[in-house]
């Protein structure tokens, strides 16, 4: 047996069956913490392939606690870990898109590397995470939005979490959140913090199966569309992956420096999100409109980014997004 125990030597690329067996073993408790840590570190050092990313995601999908979702439901979720500590863009986008009558099954977690993750900010706003998890399916059906708290839907990850924490470095599991949505959505807007990895990640998503998804990354390593410069975008459909570039001007929006959407702790971000939904102009609003427009294109409710920005802005300016947040918080 190698130093990786039951795992194949990751110095060479894993074949489909090897990758599937490795992650099944890992999640089913068939390997020691030491062997898991060494295997994950070696994979990260070498750079994970499309086959390995898809295999890890499929293993998680096979073991998650699912919920039912209405037809046309989407997710808007980033991998996190970009280190830019921005305001909660994808969380705000989820609320705005749901206010545009597109069901949103938002998969998320607490902060890992940022000061405030989606769950942290929503809790400050008044959303009870425990109840939100228990009522997710009903909220999605009745309100058109829910928050799927990752820790409550992926029991197989419980023994992996302390290993990842002890490692203190990025592993393949940092890429898994958007690929293991418990609502099993087939339309997604996925942000990753590694522009050079967009095509690889998109190929993994294509392998897993999707109706229409887009993988996005700002050139500065932002896990969402950036107003500051260019963005890598992979359009993923059953036919394959098509790469393109995107700039704020494509959506009729101004260029803005990344510093303009710098966030803070959960209380700071929650206050900014509430102000945004109440119509406050500025860079945060523009960033949310940009990403919401892309999500609406993914959902198929608009044909282009300009129309998407207009629809998202209307949902904010008519008070629909703010009202939806209030209903979500009050939902019993």
Which class in CATH terms? Answer: Alpha Beta
Average of per-residue pLDDT values? 94
Uncertain spans: none
Structural class: alpha/beta
Number of DSSP-assigned strands: 7
> Count the helices. How many?
14
The span between the termini is 54 Å
Subunit structure: Homodimer.
Protein name: Anthranilate phosphoribosyltransferase
Family: In the C-terminal section; belongs to the anthranilate phosphoribosyltransferase family. Belongs to the anthranilate phosphoribosyltransferase family.
Cofactor: Mg(2+)
Describe the structure.
The protein has helices at residues 16-27, 33-46, 50-63, 89-99, 118-125, 129-134, 136-143, 150-153, 160-167, 198-208, 266-277, 283-299, 305-317, 320-330; strands spanning 74-78, 104-108, 145-149, 187-191, 212-218, 231-237, 240-246. With 332 residues, the protein is of the alpha/beta class. The protein has a single domain (74-150, 175-330), classed as Nucleoside phosphorylase/phosphoribosyltransferase catalytic domain (Pyrimidine Nucleoside Phosphorylase, Chain A, domain 2, 3-Layer(aba) Sandwich), CATH 3.40.1030.10. The strands form two sheets. It has a five-stranded mixed sheet with strand order 1-4-5-6-7, sandwiched between helices. Helix 12 packs across helix 13. The mean pLDDT is 94.
Can you give keywords for this protein?
single chain, alpha/beta, 332 residues, five-stranded mixed β-sheet, Pyrimidine Nucleoside Phosphorylase, Chain A, domain 2, two-stranded parallel sheet
């Amino acid at each position: 047996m190698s130093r990786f125990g039951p795992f194949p030597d990751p110095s060479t690329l894993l074949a489909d069956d090897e990758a599937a067996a490795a992650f099944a073993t890992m999640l089913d408790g068939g390997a020691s913490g030491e062997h898991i840590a060494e295997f994950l570190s070696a994979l990260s050092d070498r750079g994970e392939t499309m086959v390995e990313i898809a295999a890890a995601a499929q293993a998680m999908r096979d073991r998650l606690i699912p919920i039912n979702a209405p037809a046309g439901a989407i997710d808007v979720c980033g991998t996190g870990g970009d280190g830019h500590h921005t305001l909660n863009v994808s969380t705000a986008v989820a609320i705005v898109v749901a206010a545009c009558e597109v069901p949103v099954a938002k998969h998320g977690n607490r902060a890992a590397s940022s000061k405030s993750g989606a769950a942290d900010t929503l809790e400050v706003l008044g959303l009870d995470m425990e109840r939100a998890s228990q009522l997710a399916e009903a909220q999605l059906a009745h309100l058109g939005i829910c928050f799927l708290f990752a820790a409550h839907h992926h029991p197989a990850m419980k023994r992996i979490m302390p290993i990842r924490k002890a490692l203190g470095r990025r592993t393949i599991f940092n890429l898994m959140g958007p690929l293991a949505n418990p609502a099993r959505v087939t339309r997604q807007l996925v942000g990753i913090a590694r522009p050079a990895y967009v095509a690889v990640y998109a190929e993994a998503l294509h392998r897993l199966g999707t109706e229409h998804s887009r993988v996005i990354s700002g050139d500065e390593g932002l896990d969402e569309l950036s107003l500051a410069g260019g963005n890598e975008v992979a359009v993923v459909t059953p036919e394959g992956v098509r790469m393109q570039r995107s700039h704020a001007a494509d959506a009729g929006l101004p260029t803005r420096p990344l510093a303009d959407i710098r966030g803070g702790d959960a209380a700071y971000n929650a206050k900014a999100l509430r102000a945004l939904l109440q119509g406050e102009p500025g860079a945060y609003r523009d960033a949310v409109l940009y990403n919401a427009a892309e999500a609406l294109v993914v959902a198929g409710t608009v044909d282009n980014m300009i129309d998407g920005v207009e629809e998202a802005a209307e949902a904010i300016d008519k008070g629909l997004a703010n009202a939806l947040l209030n209903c979500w918080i009050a939902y019993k």
